[in-house]
């Protein structure tokens, strides 16, 4: 049995693991994917103190090395069920059941989709939410990006080095991203911004994306569409009683839920700022404040 099980190996979960280990706690990290979480999908990070223009995968690798150097155990297994009501908590994965005195939820968020009928069928066949993963499939092709925030702008700049032309579909008149990124995008000759438009339908040939139609009457022949319209919390297996109406985990000022011994940190809790530095801060705070 463990003192603490941490579900999620993004920066908040790994930070909590580091602080728990330094507090001499028996800790286990669990993640269904790669250590680093969504860091592995980010081209460049420029706003984390002490790291200058590091790639997301490189940052994730550094975090994994730190976990290994500190001998913090972790397993890459998908969590299927949680039993949190008892004094001894149980976390059931695809392979095993683990027990702990305390559980920290740190699963982060997942990308949102547009809600079109054939969207899920085209995922991996022309539709993507990860430029780092799929960019080379569209070398010298025309593509579209949907979004107005930092993620959409950063990925547009990254993809501009690989593809032929980018239609950046902006569902409004302005941008939600940082001014510096907006200016870079506007000054990139490969990026064409289409304002006040939404994708109405996606067309396919031979089970692959062949083009899109916008609600302003425009048809675009593109081989790929990258979606960056926000995120939703990855809380599918979390008890409803500790979630708010939008699926975020509700916590108090020490990051504990209304179930004693169950905490939540990072992007699955509702907060004003979703940044790497605030997620790391949550990971430190939760261990420091844990009774």
Question: What order do the helices and strands come in, and which of them pair?
Answer:
Layout: E1 2-7, H1 11-22, E2 27-31, H2 56-69, E3 74-76, E4 79-83, E5 89-93, E6 97-105, E7 109-111, H3 119-122, E8 127-128, H4 131-134, E9 142-146, H5 150-159, E10 165-169, H6 179-186, E11 191-194, E12 199-205, E13 208-214, E14 219-220, E15 224-227, E16 231-233, E17 262-264, H7 276-289
Parallel strand pairs: 1-2, 1-6, 2-3, 6-17, 8-15, 9-10, 9-15, 10-11
Antiparallel strand pairs: 4-5, 5-6, 7-16, 12-13, 13-14
Helix pairs in contact: 1-2, 1-7, 5-6
In percent, how much strand structure appears in the residues?
25-35%
Distance between the termini: 18 Å
Structural class: alpha/beta
Low-confidence stretches: none
User: What is the count of helical runs?
Assistant: 7
Helix content: 10-25%
Molecular shape: elongated
| Rg over CA atoms | 20 Å
Main sheet makeup: 7 strands, mixed
**How do the SSEs run, as a string of H and E?**
EHEHEEEEEHEHEHEHEEEEEEEH
User: What is the mean pLDDT?
Assistant: 94
Count of beta strands: 17
Question: What can you tell me about this protein's structure?
Answer:
There is one protein chain. This protein has 291 residues and is an alpha/beta fold. Helix content is 23%, strand content 27%. It is built from 7 helices and 17 strands. Strands 1, 2, 3, 4, 5, 6 and 17 form a 7-stranded mixed β-sheet that branches. Strands 8-15-9-10-11 form a 5-stranded parallel β-sheet. It is elongated and about 60 Å long. The two termini are 18 Å apart.
Précis, in short:
With 291 residues, the protein is an alpha/beta fold. 23% of the residues lie in helices and 27% in strands.
